[in-house]
Design a protein that fits this description.
It is built from nine helices and no strands. It has 221 residues and is mainly α. The longest helix has 40 residues. It is elongated and about 65 Å long.
């Protein structure tokens, strides 16, 4: 049964996931071209000064891509199910409802996580091509809240779509937007290093929180 659910989710997400992956790869290729162009038209010393003295981020072009990725995956995974209440039919499978929910969101989060890992590896290699290894590692830590925003947008969009009651839906929407805004307050390098473990924990707690609105959806009149 679990394998069947994974197969169903993969068939549903396959095309959208590949398109989102292509979009992410194009954005990373664009970042590579932009940084390469800067080193062609400016002296290396000047770029170093901009980057580490003025604390200018060379890779902020990609900061909203993970957020968009999580949002698109959630919409592709759950919006077709919510149309004509097809989601209710899925909840009558011979499997405990909370386990079904965890499988669904686990699969969606995994699909987003794979893209995030590819983006992180690409970012590391791009920065390492022109800067020391320490700068490449710093880029990953600096961009970590952006990649975490991908999961937050996925979980938040899922909460909003499966919640059957409008007041709770608005609460989930506002909480998710507030969390996302908190992840984009950086103005320099590695400003979230100390807070990042807590934020990761809070983001992961959004996953089991989806069980409650699914329960309300299943048992509403």
């Amino acid at each position: 049964m679990i394998k069947s659910i994974f197969l169903k989710e993969w068939l549903k997400l396959k095309r959208v996931w590949l398109l989102v992956l292509l979009l992410n790869l194009c954005c990373m290729a664009y970042l590579l071209i932009v940084i390469r162009h800067q080193f062609q038209i400016e002296h290396s010393e000047m770029i170093w000064y901009w980057s580490f003295e003025l604390r200018r981020l060379l890779y902020d072009e990609i900061k909203y891509i993970p957020l968009l990725t999580g949002l698109v995956i959630a919409i592709a995974q759950y919006l077709p199910e919510m149309i004509n209440h097809r989601f209710r039919l899925s909840l009558h499978l011979p499997l405990q409802a909370h386990l079904q929910v965890l499988i669904w969101i686990g699969f969606g989060a995994l699909m987003g996580g794979v893209i995030a890992l590819i983006d992180m590896a690409s970012l590391y290699l791009i920065i390492k091509g022109w800067f020391p290894t320490e700068a490449a590692a710093s880029a990953l830590l600096t961009a970590a809240p952006w990649f975490l925003a991908g999961w937050v947008s996925y979980f938040g969009a899922t909460l909003v779509m499966v919640e059957p009651h409008v007041p709770q839906r608005l609460v989930y929407l506002l909480m998710s937007l507030a969390f996302l805004a908190l992840l984009y307050l950086e103005k320099g390098y590695q400003e979230y290093d100390h807070a990042l473990p807590v934020m990761i924990l809070l983001a992961l707690l959004m996953a089991p929180a989806i069980i409650l609105p699914v329960h309300r959806y299943r048992h509403r009149s």
